[in-house]
Write a structure and sequence with these properties.
The complex is a heterodimer. In chain A, helix 21 packs across helix 23 and helix 21 crosses helix 25. Chain A has a six-stranded mixed β-sheet with strand order 6-5-10-7-8-9, with helices on both faces. By secondary structure, chain A is of the alpha+beta class. Chain A contains 25 helices and 16 strands. Chain A folds into three domains: 181 residues, Aldehyde Ferredoxin Oxidoreductase,  A, domain 1 (4-Layer Sandwich), CATH 3.60.9.10; 164 residues, Aldehyde Ferredoxin Oxidoreductase Protein, subunit A, domain 2 (Orthogonal Bundle); 149 residues, Orthogonal Bundle (Aldehyde Ferredoxin Oxidoreductase Protein, subunit A, domain 3), CATH 1.10.599.10. By secondary structure, chain B is of the alpha+beta class. Chain B folds into two domains: 72 residues; 44 residues, Alpha-Beta Plaits (2-Layer Sandwich), CATH 3.30.70.20. Chain B has three helices and nine strands. Chain B has a two-stranded antiparallel ribbon. Chain B has a two-stranded antiparallel sheet with strand order 3-4. Chain B is globular, with a radius of gyration of 15 Å. Chain B starts with a strand and ends with a strand. The mean pLDDT of chain B is 93. Classes of the chains: A alpha+beta, B alpha+beta. At the A-B interface, helix 3, helix 4, strand 11, helix 7 and strand 12 of A face helix 1, strand 2 and strand 3 of B. Strand 11 of chain A pairs antiparallel with strand 2 of chain B, so a sheet runs across the interface.
């Protein structure tokens, strides 16, 4: 970015060793950053990588971004779909590395072999990320075979949990990739292409493709993402009292059924759309019809994409059960380019801090009160605009805010990353703690908890629990190196994955795949440790110990024992 | 004689998954999009829906009329057949098609023409496109 230069390199060894995706991205990032790298300096790098199944099989629809996270200060990894992955591969690339920083706002346009640095001064500061997409859509070629990844004002203003948005409704959501873009004065990256990929055995390829396609459209495995979408989880998680609400003072919320997946589908679902090369179409868009107050019979209708995590963070955590209020909050974080989870958790902490007098109304400006979505709507704007010292701090994440203002016992984060929406039991929380991204998607502890609950069992020993979580996280490294959407994990079993790779000329068995998963896992942790992550510093928020889960209260000693064992296990794995 | 034509049945059902585009390339034995004769793009952003661009199998195809080399010949039942050895890659056919359904192979510098085989329709999970049988073409 600094010298506005580009070049291509052949790095077959990376893709031979790690296949692509998360493995290749982490390896490339490791060449760029160290413990001393300031995440918002030109020395940080952004890596975007796809994998060998991208553009070849259904549901291999994700791009992996790797960067040093400005939110946590250690390894940042975030996945997004839309058309990003197919566009990168169809433009002819396995990975893209962005270094340095521009002096003035630019966007990068990559059309196959040609790369352009385009002036973006006129796009900087634009109110809505929707408009940015619209402008670039008109200005660039490649309609239908391109992705437009862009930031909103939150990214420009370096909110540490700003997102990069692609195809209007998909995001590199977590850990602040948007702020890294902003620090490089990179408003957007548009990439297009329509190349072909030779396969070694076309007939076998077509046959395996058909099998995977049939499984995707006919089996029950994908049904839940297809019908009601991820929001289908609101009802069952409320029923077992595992939905973090009101800053996790409780794990259920009266009235939440108003914004359940079923209720939203019945009253607001307008259409469903898909990522490129995915038949599932899990993206659910609600129609929000709003009258203009100044003129009768004058309306605007916008389409707002909702998912479970957004209903959790901007609904349950803030006590918002009005569909109109919730949809407006979602629309606001989209327009600004903020991570919905981190924003909701930060505002939930702020609300409780205000309640308890840890902060005062002159600092929050908006009179934050559970359920009062109009106030939250203002506060969301303040996080981006940062009109006061309080919001400048809140824009650095809930961990930083609690360090400066107090209320750490109810600041819900792991290693600085705000918690996702599952208070299902010890596996969820230990999973957030030890996951390389501190994400619920690292090892799906919530799923493990619910299996234990369904079988009416007690949680296993902390050691056994950690073993299971690490095993799952290792396997997921295979999926995210290929790169397959985690929603399709039930279809891409080790056997099916090996079968899919074979006609492409890659002969591996399930055992070799599992080994690859371990290698990528170790690589990521090696990088994390090099960047300064210290497992000793992992703490469970006090609030998470106080509010009972469906499996009872989590005991602090259980958590500590798990972390100690994890440290031990990690050093053994690394040796 | 009855003939087959690929028809866009209901574009409002399209979710933009583009499986049809990938299917078209796969039919040629490759992955990706290079030789795809069908294009799905949004109508000014995903939020506004999609358009499916593909040959309509015109009975009197303008693309064939403008070809100076007679490389595009009307196909029985509608649409055209490409004879690549006659094509000079002048691009007049592409300009002539008002719906933009003459795609282009940049590597070969020749048009990509839908042959209405229906392979893509087998991979449309939402009933947007399907093969239609025309009873008699005249």
């Amino acid at each position: 970015m600094t010298s506005r230069k580009f070049w291509t390199e052949n790095r077959p060894e990376l893709f031979d060793k790690y296949m692509g995706g998360a493995g290749a991205a982490a390896a490339l990032l490791r060449e760029e950053v160290s413990a001393r790298t300031d995440p918002l300096s030109p020395e940080n790098a952004v890596v975007l990588a796809v994998g060998p199944l991208t553009a070849l099989y259904p549901m291999a629809s994700k791009t992996v971004a790797a960067f040093k996270s400005p939110l946590t200060g250690d390894y940042g990894e975030s996945h997004a779909g839309g058309r990003s992955a197919t566009a990168i591969r169809m433009a002819g690339y396995g990975a893209i590395v962005i270094r340095g920083a521009s002096r003035s706002p630019v966007y990068i346009a990559i059309h196959e072999d040609k790369v352009y640095f385009r002036d973006a001064r006129a796009l900087w500061g634009m109110r809505s990320s929707y408009t940015v997409g619209r402008v670039i859509r008109e200005a660039e070629p490649g309609a239908g075979v391109r992705a437009i990844m862009r930031i909103g004002r939150a990214g420009e203003r370096l909110v540490r949990y700003a997102t990069v948005i692609t195809e209007t409704y998909r995001h590199f959501g977590r850990l602040g990739l948007g702020a890294v873009f902003g620090s490089k004065k990179l408003k957007a990256l548009v990439i297009s292409g329509k190349k072909s990929i030779k396969v070694e055995k076309p007939q076998e390829y077509r046959r395996v493709y058909r099998e995977i396609y049939e499984a995707a459209v006919k089996s029950k495995l994908m049904r839940k993402y297809h019908d009601i979408g991820t929001a289908v989880n609101i009802v069952p998680l409320t029923r077992i009292k595992a939905l973090p609400s009101l800053n996790l003072k409780q794990a259920t919320l009266q009235g939440i059924e108003e914004v359940s997946g079923e209720a939203l589908a019945e009253r607001h679902l307008a259409k469903r759309v898909a990522c490129a090369h995915c038949p599932v179409a899990c993206i659910h868009l609600a129609a929000l019809r709003e009258p203009y107050p100044d003129e009768p019979y004058f309306y605007k209708t916008t389409f707002v994409s909702y998912d479970y995590e957004l209903i959790y963070s901007l609904g349950a955590m803030l006590g918002v059960t009005s569909t109109r209020g919730l949809l407006k909050l979602i629309e606001a974080v989209e327009a600004l380019g903020l991570d919905a989870i981190s924003t909701g958790v930060a505002l939930a902490w702020a609300t409780e801090a205000l309640e308890k007098g840890v902060v005062v109304a002159s600092e929050t400006i908006a009179q934050l009160k559970w359920g009062d979505w109009a106030s939250y709507l203002k506060a969301i704007e303040y996080i981006a605009d940062q009109p006061s010292q309080f919001y400048k701090t809140l824009a650095k994440g809930v961990a930083q805010a609690a360090r400066e203002y107090g209320g750490e016992e109810y600041a819900l984060h792991y290693a600085g990353c705000e918690i996702p929406g599952y208070h299902t039991g010890p596996a969820a929380h230990i999973g957030y703690a030890i996951g390389a991204r501190h994400s619920h998607l690292d090892s799906a502890g919530y799923s493990l908890d619910q299996k234990i609950l369904a079988a009416s069992q007690q949680p296993p020993s902390p050691q056994e629990l950690v073993d299971k979580l690490v095993e799952e996280e290792c396997w997921r490294q295979v999926l995210s190196s290929l790169v397959v959407c985690y929603f399709a994990r039930g279809i891409y079993t080790p056997e099916t994955t090996a079968k899919a790779l074979k006609p492409l000329g890659t002969a591996v068995d399930s055992a070799a795949l599992r080994e690859l998963g371990q290698e990528v896992y170790k690589l990521k942790y090696r990088l994390k440790l090099e960047l300064g992550f210290n497992p000793d510093s992992l703490k469970i928020p006090k609030r998470a110990l106080e509010t009972p889960t469906p499996l009872g209260k989590i005991s602090e000693s259980y958590f500590k024992e798990a972390i100690t064992y994890f440290k031990h296990k990690l050093s053994k794995m690394m040796a | 004689m009855p003939s087959r034509r690929l028809a866009v049945v209901d574009v409002d059902r399209c979710v933009g998954c583009q499986l049809c585009m990938f299917a078209c390339s796969r039919r040629h034995g490759v992955g990706g999009l290079e030789n795809s004769a069908i294009l799905v793009r949004s109508v000014g952003g995903v939020e506004r829906g999609f358009t499916v661009v593909v040959c309509r199998a015109c009975l009197d195809p303008q693309c064939a009329r403008v070809c100076p080399e007679e490389a595009l010949k009307p196909r029985e039942g509608g649409g055209v057949v490409l004879e690549p050895s006659l094509c000079t890659g002048c691009g007049l056919c592409r300009e002539a098609c008002v719906i933009g359904a003459v795609m282009w192979d940049d590597e070969a510098n020749k048009p990509v023409i839908c042959i209405h085989c229906g392979y893509c329709a087998q991979y449309c999970p939402h009933g947007v496109i399907s093969i239609e049988v025309r009873e008699s073409a005249s």
